[in-house]
Amino acid sequence: MIQPLSDALAERGYETLTPVQTAVTAPELEGRDLLVSAQTGSGKTVAFGLAIGTTLLDDATQFERAAAPLALVIAPTRELALQVKRELAWLYAKAGVVMASCVGGMDMRDERRALERGAHIVVATPGRLRDHIQRGSIDLSQARAVVLDEADEMLDLGFREDLEFILSEAPETRRTLLFSATVPAAIAKLAQSYQKDAARVTTTAEKSQHADIDYRAMAVAPRDAENAIINVLRYFEAPTAIVFCNTRAMVNRLTTRFSNRGFSVVALSGELTQNERSHALQAMRDGRARVCVATDVAARGIDLPNLELVVHAELPNNHETLLHRSGRTGRAGRKGTSAMIVPAKLRRKAERLLQGAKVKASWGDAPSADDVNARDEERLFADPVWSEPVSDGEAGLVGKLTDRFTPEQLAAAYARLFRQRQSAPEDLAPSGSDAPKPRPAFGESVWFSVSVGRKDNAEPRWLLPALCRAGDLTKDDIGAIRIQQNASFVEIAKPRVDGFLKALGTDMKLDDGARVTRLEQAPDFSTMPRPGKPPRKEGGFKKKPYEKKAYEPREAPDAPAPKSGKAISETRPEGAVTEHKPSGDRKPKGKPAHNKKPSDQKPKDQKARAQKPGGKTPFVKGDAKPSQGGKPKRPRPAGNPNDTSKRFVPPGKSVKPRVGKGAGATPKRAKPKR
Fold first, then answer.
1. Rounded CA gap, 383 and 282, in Å?
2. Which of 185, 287, 408, 665 is most buried, by CB atoms within 10 Å?
3. Where is the composition biased (Basic and acidic residues) (predicted)?
4. pLDDT tens across 513-557, in order?
5. Whether residues 370 and 344 fall in one domain
6. Summary mean pLDDT of the chain
């Protein structure tokens, strides 16, 4: 191992390397392409940092002046890329490394200036790195190694085309290292296309998935899922916990619910901006927030310190997502808990997820309110504050309290103050409360027959209340009800038979007239015919049978058929006189017709327009003359064709002179209509 890297590990407190770190630094793998599968949180970032050390530095201990990048590290999310940048920065700090990042959501101009100044290692997300390559902002000619971190997640997020473009632009002499929690067929195909003689590295920790994580499956009633999550958070009281949801709406709902219950909570979802995400993660790191509610996509790649509890508020869609969620805890040798909230109807799905992930979970109920209170008492008595001596500054107050109050009063006041700081637990219903309970044995009984059956549309839903009303029974006094074709059979508890017969009376009939008969023994239903389908009711739509008729040619008509609505005018003999009916004799359609006398109808003066007296109406025809008495107009000079003032001339068209207007004459505007 290169000395600067060894010194950096010693300062960080690394006494031994993790299995994946030991595997990738083996001498026989130096300079080869690697396909590494290791669980989340196994130290993969430091592992590929050590693996590319000899490729970047050779035998030197210091980097030369930064120019074109020597290594590219590609991560699926912004948070993971920035986290990888921080890890590699302290690992290569003593070697004088210059780091740069190209991630979405950041100012692209600042990234371009950083690349122009030079960098040894560039950490980027696929989309932003492709933009820089296409814009010519980054030079990949000197790249010696390309690392794909969380390659399976990048393919799940749809970055295949971007990754193929980046790998095709990098030099062919580079090393390609693929790190992935799982190696599906898509990852194997990508490795086959862009790696040369890659060495497959599988750590021993992969054989026992998440050995440091305690998986717990908690069965709850469907309506108590949110209350169960609150009790889980209160029961474990982890310094940092993350609650996973499937949708943004569920994230917003739980965030509001937890905030109202007094939890210090932040949310991570796709609708947040980069600044909001950074503030939320920083609040979790510095302890201002204790619970993070997030979706799968928004939480990919984040690393929260001291994360001891992962709660699956909603079951994931596949076992890979279950492993990625749970892998947020139990890192670097620390223990963690992964709690699955499983409604009764989703138990089979939870079992399939655990089986696909190859992990074993302990099944049980969610913590009840009594369990949470008992755990609070354990933490109260285990608090190291009880063993600390009284300081000088506290002695005066302690003396005043003991003089004024009794020990019982002091203890009660402390218990109240302790519980006020905590959120009250929720009361949960039994996890199987929604499931139908098995009915106990009915006991001794007597069978009765009722003279209505399936042919009479008899059904238990109306036969049961009819028996209860007529026989003074309850539903618990009635056992089995068997509906047959012509009769129905009812089982009644033996202690209630006498009261039942007394209530029916001598006629032994129900309210609707059905007759009830007591049987000496239970009927043998095996000898009775099995019920068939009910007969089809008559009525409804019936299709008429199709009758095919022989072809008969139609005779050509001698004359066109008369139109409907109006009869054709009758033929009249030659020389006959047709009586004319004036318009007033017609049937009125709207208003009645006015009967005007012929003398009242004066013919209008149908003079030609050109023969009207002169005035404002211009002459149209050249040979028309004004009538007597009209004042003739003076002829106006011809217009100047070069005059385009106050006129719009379309481009490319010649100017036409204004008719009857002289040069410079102001055009007359038309009066607006009123």
1. 28
2. 665
3. 547-557, 569-587, 597-608
4. 888 999 988 888 777 776 655 555 555 555 566 666 666 777 665
5. yes
6. 80
Rounded Cα–Cα distance for residues 222 and 432 (Å):
10
Answer yes or no: do 44 and 173 share one domain: yes
Return the percentage of the chain with pLDDT > 90, whole number: 28
Both 173 and 199 in one domain: the answer is yes
- With the CA atoms of 375, 376, 380 and 384 taken in that order, what torsion angle do they form, in degrees rounded to the nearest 10? 60
- Helix H or strand E encompassing 391: none
Express each pLDDT in 579-603 by its tens digit: 555 555 555 555 555 555 555 555 5
pLDDT score of 489: 92
Q: What is the DSSP letter of 272?
A: S
b/e per residue 245-257 (b: at least 16 CB within 10 A): bbeeebbeebbeb
Domain that holds residue 347: 213-376
Edge-to-edge order in the sheet of strand 175-180: 99-102, 121-124, 71-74, 145-148, 175-180, 34-37, 199-202
Banded model confidence at residue 672, pLDDT cuts 50, 70, 90: low
Q: Residue 297 in 3-state DSSP? A: coil
CATH number at residue 475: 3.30.70.330
Distance CA 367, CA 371 (A): 6
How does 595-632 read in b/e, with b if 16+ C-beta sit within 10 Å?
Answer: eeeeeeeeeeeeeeeeeeebeeeeeeeeeeebeeeeee
Residues 84 and 193 in one domain: yes
Cβ burial of 117 (10 Å; 0-12, 13-18, 19+) is: exposed
Distance CA 357, CA 107 (A): 40
Task: Say if residue 256 is in the same domain as residue 128.
Answer: no
Overall number of domains in the chain: 3
Domain boundary among 473, 489, 518: 518
CATH number of the domain bearing residue 139: 3.40.50.300
- What one-letter code names the amino acid at 648? F
Residues 6+ positions from 273 with CB-CB distance below 8 Å: 105
Is position 123 within any domain? Answer: yes
Q: Whose structure tokens read 């905030």?
A: 259
> d(Cα 162, Cα 155) in Å, to the nearest integer?
10
Look up residue 673 and give its amino acid: K
Amino acid found at 203: T
CB within 8 A of 361, min separation 6: which ones? 215, 216, 217, 340, 354
Alpha helices in 195-265 (DSSP H): 225-236, 248-260
Residue after which a domain boundary falls, among 206, 224, 243: 206
Checking if the pLDDT of 69 tops 80, the result is yes
- 187 and 240, same domain (yes or no): no
Interval 440-471: pLDDT, tens = 677 888 999 999 998 888 888 888 888 888 88
**What single string gives the DSSP state of each residue in 526-549?**
TSSPPP-PPPPPS-S--PPPP-PP
Query: What residue type is 20 in one-letter code?
Result: V
For 623-637, give the secondary structure using H, E and C.
Answer: CCCCCCCCCCCCCCC
